[in-house]
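Late entry, written up from scratch paper. The run itself happened at the end of the previous shift, but nothing got recorded in the book at the time, so transcribing now.
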Amino acid sequence: MMYPLYLLGLLALVIALQRLLTSREGRLAPKGLRKTVSECLAQGDLKGAIAACDKYPSTLGNSLRFIFEHVKAGREAVSQTAGDMAARDIRTHLSRIYPLSVIASLSPLIGLIEAFGLVALYGDEGGASILSDSISKALITTAAGLIIAAPAIALYFIIKNRIMKLASLVEVEVENVITTLYLEGDST
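Output as recorded:
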């Protein structure tokens, strides 16, 4: 029963490393994009802002590009659609870390499968020796499962927290751009 645990541990490691690399500020809300867009809006340069969105492909870049390209469509429509675009991308990032939570939940339980399987198979006829051997194996594999589960759930919450902070940053930046374009009258 240790082989499935090895596989789950390796899978958790691969998912965590991949998500740590892809769920970062540069992929969701690059600092350079925020700075460049702010400067372009201060100068009333929408073409420069669009060019910045192309230069920094990201969740924020896609949402801001939509806003700049459809600025004449009206505040409500643009705001709603840009927010929806960002929310979909954030949900995609969150859904890709969900397997870490599943691995953390499943790993400690794998050891119990064999123990309960043997008890179900032999029942009262198996005797204490089969039951004690099964319990021994179940305890070892459960401990190994917990060794996998603890870091997996910790990484899940660390990555989720990172994504949620960046999602808030995207939301604030989109609101700032909408405010600048529509409420401050710079929509020309």
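The chain has a mean pLDDT of 87.
(Scratch paper discarded after transcription.)
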